[in-house]
């Protein structure tokens, strides 16, 4: 969907960085052909970072839970800041450690001196303070960072009217510094990220995408494409048959922790932003079913199956990730279609008449208006292919 982009971004990572705040920009940029180098002091390419889920779960302060493992792809010691177009630092507790790392602060200062965009979120604004580049700059962050920003000479900005996580939408830009309170504001954050590196999004129409979810939907598989498509300017709605606007679906983190099958941990809360009763197929170009365990619930709901069939009858785009193919199989839309399938879904896909070849067992496959991916490891290709099928293109 993108032109060959001679663009690159550097993400400085560390243990217990916020899960969404590293994965969402990483996937979107890679899906557009941008080279994204992920590094961490004292770690090598191929090493993993622990990530953290930060969300409010009924207590005075956010809860921290273990997230997915994130694999680094570049060497911190070989970083040449002048070779990148943007710097991204996710939030999380690791930034407190990095704020005392002279090598990290030197990188931040080189980006600042070159007037290249620096993106921070949640707690990573502490690096801007430590690097001494906040003076007279407007900045936002998680509220506990307000005194830090002000002590560093920055101008604190807080989004008005925020009473819950779902109200957070704003990202603040002051010169080359772009700051966000955290992952709930990723829609605007991603638009500014793309603009800052010269991306121009074009489309044949105003695109609208509908996600179907329920409790224990896979954390990455619902949120990453949801936010990425928002960043590309799509209208994106998420509904659940049994929930209404502002209610949440608990998500599940499925990851390889050395067992014969993936482990499961609790993930973020995902906010439904539309009502099932208001869904009209004619308003949408595409329907997406993320994986996790939620498809086991959705596959038994006749309303859901009927909705998929109506999308198919009207020639709309239909997409599934991981276990999401279970619902597509039940709706009869896989017959004669090439499908990407994980090992665990292969039998179901084949029984439904889908074609799973060895060459397409991993990754993402498009066949006409059907787009399928094996799971969250294939999200970069999924976002790229789905965007292309929807008629979106990006040039730099």
TrEMBL record:
Domain DJ-1/PfpI, residue spans: 7-193, 208-386
Origin, by domain of life? Answer: Eukaryota
Among Pfam families, the record links this protein to: DJ-1_PfpI
Task: Give the family this protein belongs to, as stated in its UniProt record.
Answer: Belongs to the peptidase C56 family.
Q: What is this protein called?
A: DJ-1 protein E-like
State the organism of origin.
Tripterygium wilfordii
* Lineage, opening ranks: Eukaryota, Viridiplantae, Streptophyta, Embryophyta, Tracheophyta
């Amino acid at each position: 969907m993108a032109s060959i982009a001679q663009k690159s971004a550097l993400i400085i990572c560390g243990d217990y960085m916020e899960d969404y705040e590293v994965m969402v920009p990483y996937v979107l940029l890679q899906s557009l052909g941008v080279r994204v180098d992920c590094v961490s002091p004292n770690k090598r390419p191929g090493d993993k970072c622990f990530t953290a889920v930060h969300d409010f779960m009924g207590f005075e302060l956010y809860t921290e839970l273990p997230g997915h493992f994130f694999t680094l792809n570049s060497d911190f010691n070989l970083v040449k800041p002048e070779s990148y177009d943007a710097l991204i630092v996710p939030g999380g507790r690791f930034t407190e450690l990095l704020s005392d790392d002279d090598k990290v602060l030197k990188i931040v200062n080189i980006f600042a001196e070159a007037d290249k965009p620096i993106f921070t979120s949640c707690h990573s604004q502490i690096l801007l303070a430590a690097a001494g580049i906040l003076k007279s700059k407007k900045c936002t962050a998680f509220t506990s960072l307000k005194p830090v920003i002000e002590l560093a000479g920055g101008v604190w900005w807080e989004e008005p009217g925020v009473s819950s996580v779902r109200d957070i939408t704003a990202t603040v830009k002051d010169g080359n510094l772009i700051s966000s309170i955290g992952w709930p504001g990723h829609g605007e954050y991603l638009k500014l990220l793309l603009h800052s590196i010269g991306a121009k999004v074009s489309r044949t129409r105003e695109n609208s995408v509908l996600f179907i979810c329920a409790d224990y939907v896979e954390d990455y598989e619902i949120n990453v494409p949801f936010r990425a498509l928002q960043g590309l300017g799509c209208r994106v709605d998420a509904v659940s048959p049994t929930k209404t606007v502002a209610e949440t679906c608990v998500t599940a983190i499925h990851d390889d922790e050395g067992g014969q099958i993936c482990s499961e941990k609790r993930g973020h809360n995902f906010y439904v932003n539309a009502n099932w009763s208001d869904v009209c197929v004619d308003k949408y170009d595409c329907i997406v079913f993320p994986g996790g365990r939620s498809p086991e619930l959705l596959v038994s709901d006749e309303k859901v199956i009927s909705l998929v069939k109506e999308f198919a009858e009207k020639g709309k785009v239909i997409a599934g990730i991981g276990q999401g193919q279970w619902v597509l199989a039940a709706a009869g839309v896989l017959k004669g279609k090439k499908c990407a399938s994980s090992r665990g879904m292969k039998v179901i896909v084949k029984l439904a008449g889908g074609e799973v070849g060895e060459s397409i067992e991993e990754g993402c496959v498009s066949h006409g208006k059907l787009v399928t991916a094996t799971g969250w490891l294939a999200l970069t290709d999924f976002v790229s292919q789905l965007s292309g099928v929807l008629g979106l293109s990006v040039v730099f």
